[in-house]
Amino acid sequence: MIKFLDLHKVNERYRDEIDDKIKEVLDSGWYLLGRQNEFFCKNFANYCGAKFALGVANGLDALNLIIKAYEFGAGDEIIVPAHTYIATILAISQNQCIPILVEPDILTYNINPDLIEQKITPKTKAIMLVHLYGTAVPMDNILTLAKKYNLKVIEDSAQAHGAVYKGKKTGNLGDIAAFSFYPGKNLGALGDGGAITTNDEELYLKIKAIANYGSLKKYEHRYKGVNSRLDEIQAAVLDVKLKYLDKDNERRRQIAKYYCENIKNPNIILPQVYDEAASVWHVFVIRTQNRTQLQNYLSDNAIETNIHYPTPIHKQSAYKEWESLSLPITEQICKEVLSLPISPAMSDAEVEKVVEIMNVYK
Ligand SMILES: *Cc1c(COP(=O)(O)O)cnc(C)c1O
Description:
The protein is of the alpha/beta class. It has helices at 7-12, 15-28, 35-48, 59-69, 86-94, 140-149, 201-210, 232-242, 245-262, 291-300, 328-336, 348-359, and strands spanning 52-56, 77-81, 98-102, 124-130, 152-156, 164-165, 168-169, 176-180, 194-198, 284-287, 337-340. 37% of the residues lie in helices and 14% in strands. Helix 5 links the parallel strand 2 and strand 3. The protein is globular, with a radius of gyration of 20 Å.
């Protein structure tokens, strides 16, 4: 059986170092906001090329905290891709802001930059981008628009740790970015975790306070804050895994390249990425008209697959108010996409097997 993502195997490669770090935290007797958090945040900021990183409890919190810090609220509009994981859009609506959905580009699955300007109104406050499937969004047009209309650019980089646009990493492409360290992400913890990165010190300090009960100094509460912190054990584990992130992403790139060069099947559309460094291949997404048939066929051949995502957000019961909305590109993508196994822990034999099975599919 070729698993979609064998997390045990992924983490087992760093088992000794992770064991030692967890032991170190246990021995220290200090479990929150300590040295591990400090080291990891410093290293993660460096990795992204940003001045500041703040560890938080998860990716959704990271997005939520960013919106809170900007004090966006009732009636404020935030432009966001219609095709994303629901967390991006939940963060907007949880703050009483209005998500303005923009269709993706059918070739890259990322937000179509040409459709953004027509959605901007006097109420627009920000563009919340998602580097979907691990591929950095081409930023030039977006940054120009943001400047022209005085909008904040917020990156949802939960799927793109290490992805590059014109020599700069995600997390350093807009005003501020949110990351998730959910176990299945390219940089994954052994539980929940998240971070924000930014070059704006004032904003960083404000979020640092909000995430810790509104306080930078014990028992002095400047904001009505929340509790959203990255714990010492997760920070320590992430600091170990961060050292290997580039190597792991390189292995993903190798697998993606092998898939793209060797899967030859007229019934399948392979992913398109505009530049080698742009994607860290969080998932490898193909498209096909007969998805259920292909998924069953792969399953019969012991290959596990996944769908990112089967139901558009505007068709979810949670967003009944969008029931009648028509977003044909998003709907088509959700109907046709299928994610093949990809992970830094896959063997060559497994990768070759996937290609072989894909190539005899009719
Ligand atoms: C995973 C993910 C999130 C949420 O991260 P959590 O840590 O699960 O809260 C947000 N946005 C995108 C695009 C994601 O893939």
